[in-house]
Design a protein that fits this description.
The complex is a heterodimer. Chain A is mostly helical. Chain A is 79% helix and 1% strand. Chain A has a domain at 280-485. Chain A starts with a helix and ends with a helix. Classes of the chains: A mainly alpha, B mainly alpha.
Chain lengths: 485, 210
């Protein structure tokens, strides 16, 4: 029942977005809608964990703990983005960047985007999974090119073309998976719930070839290097709340798709094959992001490259495959979604005040935007994995597993990259946050909705760290349930 | 009965590789889609499968009529230079396309899913996919990228239907609609690029770096 409300509310908001005259009013309604979605997602997750998998609408929708978890993460970030949008859209209208009419278009695409993302973990059929992921690309391309400047249209074009090519390869992979099915003499089906139980009797070689296509195809969408080239452009040019959605959860939906196929491959071929591919791609992403973060001159591109880094860490975590590492990777999916959204919201405030993305032109943020400045400072520490925050815990779990498995070279390289990234982040953000204000700049007003969005995310950044002290056993139990799914 | 049509599909993809102008590219795409439609009709007739007729009709409507029409319409509206801008000249492109076909043939021989005409179908499917990718990379105009993607899509469809025996019906429908929507959206972006940059040469889109 919850899933109908979760999918129904964005659908309703899509239908009404263009017919509401006052955008401020619609923004608040939008935000309340996503609050309900978040509430229902929590209920849904609890229900799936406690009482098992659900199948609805015939076989169309299939929910297990894995999909419940991703729906939860998507709805958290969607709620925060909806909350932040109220203030952000209003300021854009006041500054004359967009018209009242165009704000309606923004909310239309925002809701369509969220709807398509919420569909991704819910569908059972792997062909429909492909369709929904392609829909997320097509819809979000409009949000990337929203300001209609030369840069943003160029970014949107690159985004749509590169991701579409990637996704054609993923389609080829999906077809090969169904081929493995018919070769084994089973009826033709692409339903996950039919495929998974018989994965061990499928042809190993076909599964191997198919998974390469899946990994390259959905890996393009997930931003794994070397297929990441669209990502910094698209994420830096999008509207700030949408950048948060793109970085925070859109990449995770592609990770989700890789995991779905990965589970079949693990059962059919064995862990080692999956593990090697994921770890190699993950480490390449980490290393590459490390280099680009070091020399970056653009604030939002800096954050985009940091997303590539974190997707790399997640891939390594899933690749290691032991319960502890997978629990760490799931926690990292959650943490990165939260912290990266926080940073993109902060960056959105900074960029709209200074009017520039260039790191060298931004000085004294703590004086100009006291609240945002403090949040960004905290977020910067959280993102680089500083101890009291949640990202530290998930990175720590993954690193422990790497050491326990005896892959010292990998663990050492990962620590090296992480520490270089830490230094680069502190260097860049130190320059921006401290120092004197540029001439003629006053302390700016920060809208309440933006402050609330930042606070909400900041609370969630700290929460897993605190929860782990009191509820460590329960969290581990949930992680184990996720693994079985 | 399948082989001649498969050969025609292959020839249509060679025609696209040697095309120097946008209208020629679009009309070759139209031929290829038409042969794909023919192929699906023949299969439907042989296997007495009503769903295949519906898929064939969708190909006819979307890929033979609507999508080429939309592309032509945009080409007329933006009114730019019709040359595709070849990084690799037509003769060399044809040689490369032939090489692709040879590679696809070797590759198909290696994994070989079925017997009779399936080996040939797989060769054609993979060389069509490679050709599509080639068009996307070695042509300057944004149109070529849209067309290249459609050609790749045709190749994947060929592979799915005639080598592996098709996908579940509603998935196929969903994929068709998805392709249609993506062409419309890409067309809109081509239009916007032309408006902002006054050209559609993708090799000159280089503002974002690093």
């Amino acid at each position: 029942m919850e899933i109908f409300i979760i999918l129904g509310i964005p659908l309703f908001l899509v239908a009404t977005a263009l017919f509401t005259g006052r955008q401020r009013f619609f923004g608040i309604a939008n935000c309340l809608g996503y609050l309900v979605v978040l509430f229902e997602a929590v209920l849904l997750f609890k229900k799936i964990i406690l009482s098992g998998n659900l199948k609805l609408w015939g076989d169309f929708i299939y929910l297990d703990p894995l999909s419940g978890f991703f729906i939860l993460v998507i709805s958290i970030v969607a709620f925060a983005a909806a909350l932040y949008s109220i203030g952000y859209v209003r300021r854009d209208i006041e500054q004359g960047l967009i018209s009242e009419r165009k704000a309606g278009v923004y909310y239309l695409f925002f809701n369509l985007f969220c709807l398509s993302m919420l569909f991704v973990p819910a569908v059972n059929n792997l062909g429909m999974l492909w369709v929904t992921i392609e829909m997320t690309t097509l819809i979000s391309a409009f949000l990337v090119g929203f300001y209609n400047s030369k840069e943003s249209v160029e970014a949107a074009w690159k985004y749509i073309i590169i991701c579409s090519v990637g996704i054609v390869l993923a389609l080829l992979g999906t077809i090969l998976f169904s081929c493995a099915f018919s070769v084994a003499g089973l009826s033709k089906s692409l339903n996950w719930s039919d495929m998974f139980p018989v994965a061990h009797i499928l042809d190993k070689n076909i599964l191997k070839v198919a998974f390469i296509f899946i990994l390259v195809g959905y890996g393009t969408k997930a931003g794994l290097a070397p297929m990441h080239t669209w990502l910094p452009d698209a994420h830096s040019q999008a509207v700030a709340p949408v950048s948060a959605l793109l970085s925070g959860v859109l990449l995770k939906t592609a990770i989700y798709a890789i995991l779905r196929f990965g589970l079949i491959v693990i059962k059919g071929v064995g862990l080692a094959y999956f593990s090697n591919l994921m770890i190699i791609l993950g480490m390449i992403s980490l290393g590459l992001a490390c280099g680009f973060i070091l020399v970056q001159k653009d604030l939002k591109r800096l954050l985009a490259y940091s997303s590539i880094e974190h997707v790399g860490i997640i891939a390594v975590g899933f690749g290691l495959g032991s319960p502890l590492a997978v629990a760490g990777a799931f926690l990292h999916v959650f943490n990165h979604a939260i912290v990266k959204s926080l940073m993109f919201f902060g960056a959105g405030n900074i960029v709209s005040l200074y009017g520039k993305h260039n790191i060298n032109a931004i000085r004294g943020v703590l004086k100009a935007l006291p609240f945002t400045g403090i949040m960004v400072l905290m977020g910067c520490f959280a993102l680089t994995g500083f101890p009291p925050f949640s990202v530290f815990i998930s990175e720590f779990l993954i690193l422990i597993t790497a050491f326990v498995n005896g892959s010292y070279l990998m663990a050492g390289l990962m620590l090296l990259f992480l520490s270089v990234i830490f230094g680069a982040f502190i260097h860049h953000f130190g320059k921006m946050l401290f120092g004197n204000l540029p001439k003629n700049m006053l302390t700016a007003h920060e809208p309440l909705s933006e402050k609330l969005a930042l606070l909400f995310l900041f609370f969630l950044t700290c929460a897993p760290g605190i929860a782990l002290i009191f509820k460590g056993k329960d969290l581990l139990w949930i992680a184990q349930r996720l693994l079985q799914g | 009965m399948h082989e001649p049509v498969l050969l025609l599909i292959l020839v249509a993809s060679y025609l696209m590789v040697v095309a120097k102008r946008v209208p020629a590219l679009i009309s070759s795409f139209r031929y290829q889609s038409f042969f794909l439609f023919l192929m699906t009709m023949i299969s439907g007739f042989e296997e007495r499968h009503p769903a295949l007729y519906l898929v064939a009709m969708l190909i006819l409507v979307l890929k033979v009529f609507v999508i080429p029409y939309v592309l032509n319409l945009i080409a007329k509206r933006i009114n730019v230079d019709e040359n595709l801008g070849l990084f690799v000249n037509a003769q060399l492109s044809l040689i490369i396309a032939l090489l692709f076909t040879y590679c696809a043939w070797v590759f198909s021989g290696l994994i070989m899913f079925g017997q009779d005409y399936k080996l040939f179908a797989m060769t054609v499917a993979f060389s069509v996919i490679f050709t599509g990718a080639f068009l996307m990379i070695f042509r300057m105009k944004a149109f070529a990228q849209v067309a290249g993607l459609l050609v790749m899509e045709n190749g994947v469809f060929l592979f799915a239907s005639f080598v592996l025996g098709g996908m579940p019906f509603f998935v196929e429908i969903a994929i068709f609609l998805d392709v249609f929507v993506s062409v419309i959206i890409m067309g809109l972006f081509v239009y916007r690029i032309n408006k902002l940059f006054t050209h559609i040469d993708v090799n000159k889109l280089s503002r974002l770096k690093g």
